[in-house]
Task: inverse folding
């Protein structure tokens, strides 16, 4: 299992590299609105899938430390 700091860094790296300035998200926001663009990121985008995985790992570290 990854540690908290590593997971947060991985999340930051992914969003910085792929999400900031993403043309697909930008275009979807323009054409279909913020909610539909967000839905695409969560349900379709492979980077979104990876971010969800890392979020689950982050929750595991938080639960483990309680």
Result:
């Amino acid at each position: 299992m990854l540690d908290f700091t590593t997971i947060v860094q991985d999340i930051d790296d992914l969003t910085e590299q792929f999400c900031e300035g993403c043309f697909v998200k930008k275009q979807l926001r323009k054409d279909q609105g913020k909610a539909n663009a967000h839905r695409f990121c969560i349900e379709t985008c492979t980077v979104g899938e990876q971010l969800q995985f890392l979020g689950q790992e982050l929750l595991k570290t938080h639960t483990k430390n309680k």
Notes: The two ends are 16 Å apart (CA to CA). DSSP finds four helices and no strands in the chain. The chain has one domain: 4-64. The longest helix spans residues 46-64.
